[in-house]
Write a structure and sequence with these properties.
Layout: H1 3-24, H2 32-37, H3 42-62, H4 66-93
Amino acid sequence: MPAYLQVFLYLQLLDFLTTVVGMRLGLVEISPFVRWLMGAGPVLGTLLSKLMAVALAGFCLWIHRRRLIHWLNYWYAALVVWNLAIIWIALARS
């Protein structure tokens, strides 16, 4: 498996975990689509969004747009850092 794909999957896991931790701390999801998916429950909704992201990455591989996954890795890395910062702020306030 190429390194960029491993990084993508790892970032999906980190985003899932940090989102769930944030929810348990009382934080809210800012993405309207993911918030809508969370109608089925916070963990299930987040999991569904991650499965969709992996499916879209698979589609990118299928249409030979691997470079897009490289760029998505930067986006998800920033998202994980954002989640960690928000969790840190929430913990500092409690």
